[in-house]
Recover the amino acids of this structure.
């Protein structure tokens, strides 16, 4: 008996609405992609001088293969640097990728690198003002890397916040090419997330010093791999798997393990498989229905609010038009199945251990909450994604994912969700439109009626807190934080002081044209307000109260 049910009628209605409004833009995108596809491998059309430049530094065997043009050449676009813990493992990926390509009778080349910021480093400082803009630089850098017409397939190496969306947007300009994303995996568990949050609040109150805070932060962020809380980086990774860009079950396997290495090799082998004969291009995978599947995953897991921007942009790069109303309508019908910090106490390693993506896929498919008629790097449909990888006598294989969660405080079935609705909501009011993440906000704290206090920066709010001026119920209006004003930085530094005030019994909330992102937690936060203050938005009209 199949564990897949036809899509819920409500989900189908939203999808059909998206298909209808995307008809012209999607057709124009596919016309462009099909023109490229019908020309065949671009390398074959290069002049001799052009091609000689492209393989001048290759070894003799690769030169021969590229000159004859019979074997596929895979281009690697990497966001590797030594500052992002999540990307450090990528420094060792290129040679294994080349070896795996050789095993399939193909070649691989580093096509180019893209910039990769760490929001954790720049939080609260001027560098954060460049963070959101970096996504479009990454998209352009990816397109530049792939513009040489040397490649028959693409391998994207990226994990964190703006990097995966940027890689996707750039690669979609070459959507005729088969493409895989290879994750690096999360770091192993460190200091529990609730203890880290407590240390931050104690520091905000002045009860511990910088030395104690740094010790706590270092015990939390302690090794190579993705930060273990469920912020934008790990939401990106979930998104790539649920949209069919990762190997099944490969998303949350720790770095530097035999299983992680085997999955990297297998990812290249699978790319080779979908590059031969009848290629499955990125444009064939990223469709209206796979975008909806990604939004379903976002809502079911309580993922990052950043994807209220990123999914919209990824979709648009593929000619698909989605907006916040679509996200909110999908959230209305998708149950919340996960409690991962900041929506709970568990980290992504715990999520993986108690059932992970295989269990999530199984539950959503069984409830008719995913579109099955999609393509992935595995071929047709999503059945492969209800499996999980393991090593048997050193060989990679797959088995059915568990049918019951091993910890229903972290991961639940559709029949027993944490909430009947998803994690993100659209808010509308006299200030405009905004997004709120409610999955971590207690129901009794979701409605706050209190005087507004207006700030022009997060530093102003922090200073007022330190002066003891915020010991009361209030709604913090932090304005002039939008894209036009200063690049729409994340305001993560506001979480500890507002958390302290909430714990003291005060009713507090935040309204801003800036971002809170994956750090959005227990404080009700209406974010991404549009129109922003600098764009003649109503929140820019009022005068500051302090």
């Amino acid at each position: 008996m199949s564990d897949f049910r036809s899509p819920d009628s409500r989900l189908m209605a939203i999808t059909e609405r998206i298909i209808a409004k995307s008809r012209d833009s999607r057709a124009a995108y596919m016309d462009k992609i099909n023109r490229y596809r019908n020309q065949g491998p671009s390398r074959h059309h290069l002049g001799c001088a052009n091609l000689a430049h492209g393989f001048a530094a290759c070894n003799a065997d690769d030169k021969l293969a590229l000159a004859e043009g019979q074997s596929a050449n895979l281009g690697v676009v990497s966001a590797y640097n030594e500052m992002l813990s999540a990307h450090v493992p990528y420094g060792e990926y290129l040679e294994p990728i080349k070896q795996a390509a050789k095993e399939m009778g193909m070649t691989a080349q580093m096509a180019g690198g893209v910039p990769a910021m760490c929001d954790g480093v720049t939080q609260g400082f001027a560098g954060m003002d460049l963070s959101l803009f970096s996504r479009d630089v990454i998209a352009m850098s990816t397109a530049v890397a792939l513009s040489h017409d040397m490649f028959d397939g693409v391998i994207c190496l990226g994990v964190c916040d703006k990097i995966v969306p940027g890689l996707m947007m750039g690669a979609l300009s070459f959507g005729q090419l088969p493409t895989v994303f290879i994750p690096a995996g999360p770091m192993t568990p460190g200091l529990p997330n609730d203890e880290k949050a407590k240390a931050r609040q104690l520091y905000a109150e002045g009860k511990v010093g910088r030395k104690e805070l740094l010790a706590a932060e270092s015990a939390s962020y302690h090794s190579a791999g993705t930060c273990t809380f469920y912020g934008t980086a790990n939401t990106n990774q979930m998104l790539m798997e649920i949209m069919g860009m990762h190997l099944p079950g490969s998303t949350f396997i720790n770095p530097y393990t035999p299983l992680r290495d085997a999955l990297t090799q297998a990812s290249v082998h699978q790319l080779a498989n979908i590059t031969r004969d009848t290629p499955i291009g990125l444009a064939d995978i990223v469709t209206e229905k796979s975008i909806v599947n990604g939004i379903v995953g976002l809502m079911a897991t309580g993922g990052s609010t950043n994807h209220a921007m990123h999914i919209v942009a990824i979709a648009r790069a593929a000619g698909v038009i989605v907006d916040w109303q679509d996200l909110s309508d999908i959230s209305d019908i998708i149950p919340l199945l996960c409690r991962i910090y900041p929506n709970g106490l568990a980290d992504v390693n715990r999520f993986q251990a108690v059932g992970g993506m295989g269990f999530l896929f199984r539950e959503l498919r069984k409830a008719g909450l995913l579109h099955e008629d999609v393509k992935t790097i595995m071929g047709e449909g999503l059945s492969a994604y209800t499996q999980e990888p393991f090593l048997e006598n050193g060989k990679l294989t797959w088995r059915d994912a568990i049918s019951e969660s091993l910890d229903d405080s972290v991961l639940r079935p559709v029949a027993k969700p944490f909430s009947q609705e998803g994690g993100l909501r659209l808010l509308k009011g006299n200030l405009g439109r905004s997004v709120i993440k409610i999955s971590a906000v207690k129901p009794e704290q979701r409605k706050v009626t209190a005087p507004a206090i207006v700030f022009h920066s997060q530093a102003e709010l922090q200073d007022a807190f330190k002066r003891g001026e915020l010991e009361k119920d209030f709604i913090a209006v932090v304005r002039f934080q939008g894209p036009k004003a200063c690049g729409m930085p994340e305001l993560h530094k506001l979480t500890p002081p507002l958390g302290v005030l909430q714990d003291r019994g005060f009713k507090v909330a935040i309204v801003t044209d800036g971002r809170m992102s994956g750090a959005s937690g227990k404080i009700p936060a209406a974010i991404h307000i549009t129109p922003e203050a600098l764009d003649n938005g109503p929140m820019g009209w009022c005068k500051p109260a302090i």
About this structure: The first strand starts at residue 73 and ends at 78. The longest helix spans residues 258-275.
